[in-house]
Amino acid sequence: MKQKEGFRLRTICGENIIVAEGIQNVDFSRIISLNETAAYLWRQSEGKVFDAKSLTQLLLDEYEVDEATALSDVRQLLSSWMEAGIIEA
Fold it and tell me: N- to C-terminal Cα distance for the chain?
């Protein structure tokens, strides 16, 4: 997977928000807000191809979490990113 072109993470008023850049991505019906952990994974995956395994490893390296929980959380996150249309396979 990879991030779709034209989506960037910005911090606005202390909140991590994915914003669309470019006319093809403009859709004001949804705001995509990320918690600190999701924002960390987004930053770490910018410009890279990634999968659930690589993002899980990032969580294990950065946070005190067991592998099963990290993998479950990553799968949920990837599903929400895919549904939001900000990543592609």
Answer: 4
